[in-house]
Amino acid sequence: MKRLLVANRGEIAVRIIRAARDLGISTVAVHSTADATAAHVRLADAAVEIGPPQASKSYLAVAAILDAARSSGADAVHPGYGFLSERASFAAAVVDAGLIFVGPDPAVIDQMGDKVRARQLAEAAGVPTVPGTRGGVDDVAAAVAAATDVGYPLMLKAAAGGGGRGIRVVEHEAGLRSAFPAASKEAAAAFGDGRMYLERFVQRARHIEVQLLGDGDDAVHLRERECSLQRRRQKVLEEATAPGLDPAVAAAMASAAVRLARQVGYRGAGTVEFLLDEATGEFFFIEMNTRIQVEHPTTELVTGVDLVAEQLRIAAGEPLRPRQDDIVARGHAIEFRVNAEDPSRDFLPSPGNVGRVVLPAGPWVRVDTWLEPDSTIPPFYDSLLAKIIVWGEDRETAVRRGRRALAEFAVEGVPTTAGLFTELLGEPWFTAAEFHTGTLEQWLRDRKEEQ
Amino acid sequence: MARHEVVSPIPGVFYRRADPGSDPFVSEGQQVGADDTVCLVEVMKSFHQVSAGTAGTMVEFLVENEDIVEAGQAVAVIEAE
Questions:
Q1: Which of A189, A190, A349 sits opposite B43 (nearest CB)?
Q2: What's the pTM value of the predicted model, to 2 decimals?
Q3: Which of A136, A195, A252, A414 is 20 to 30 Å from the Cα of A154, by its Cα?
Q4: Which residues of A are catalytic, by number?
């Protein structure tokens, strides 16, 4: 691997370019016309414009990206997260063009992208799954019949879907009967597949995920992350490792994830997401993400492993370097996702012109961002401005450092979610790590009523 | 009869249909109610419905599907009842 094209934008493009440069690999950025002066374009050794601002015509335009790879002499493509990162057809097109795709085989992306097949693979690897339908369900009658075994409350999900889109929770049979037709129709429209997947809804669940690296033959885990604090099923704050998690449960989760990776011959960085039922200590497979994740720096800070560099090494054909016995999580890391959204206006997106920008720094504070003073936040892409990641020798130290880092952060011109984290860190339930996937939304509702 | 302009309150990408497989929310010449959705504007991956704002007849759209719109830009014209 001599020259890497980064098929992404924003903070993750910057992150990947840095990892490549650290390894002595030259880099090619691609960009839409809206990103002509963006940080990732400037940091790369070369840059190619691939289309107009709309993502569908630029960062999702497979032919334009492959043309850019050809014209710039790239021999490898890193997809980042989002955009084309989990599209098996893109990975296959990259390979067919004679280039290295930084990620698993297209067939593995394809398998893990289909919830029904992913669940079958998990079961085959002895990974516990949530009680649910074995296959996709086509109609209301079949759904009602299946629900008898699954149990209520249950979730309706598109068999071909992803990213939390179109998920509905139903409490009883009448709710299922009324929700199914619209949910199935939506799934058919969005994904071209109206089959639905039913699964038990675990109340007061924690979302915990295991980071993996594999080289196709072997796989290791890099411990777990706590990702329960979510709004509209989007993660807001993540931690590594999971506070208060029973070490026996953590170990069982990690080995389950490794079994799944080995089962599919996983190559690259991946994450297995689990729901943990706090009441029983049971954990269940949710899905496997076949890409680098937004919250990967928390794992990097506690393990000292550069996950993106390892992705590149594995893609270049090197065998897996970290050995399981050498991977030790030390201290605690927390990531705050600062978004261009206005918390006082129901998180309305806030694109626009930015004036002064002050990024936190100092001991054990890392900021992954594309944001620069006097830049423009385009309305066309996600709202993630910066990830502030802090490390401390224990969770309490990390929380204090987080408070300090957030106080240093400033952006003029647009509202951001940074201030919300300072409030959050002051909540007793947060410092005690007593929360689940519904806690943040409940807190936001309570907070709104008080104001 | 008054001419009413439908304005996008936010910048982003303009869509005339809920998804690529659906019919447009409204066609030119069609009657609309004040609360009827006439288009979507996508800003930072979230979709905002823009309603007619007045009852009347859709005269014309001023932008094409998937065009970029600015905050405050007129996207359609309705002849109000």
A1: A349
A2: 0.89
A3: A252
A4: 291
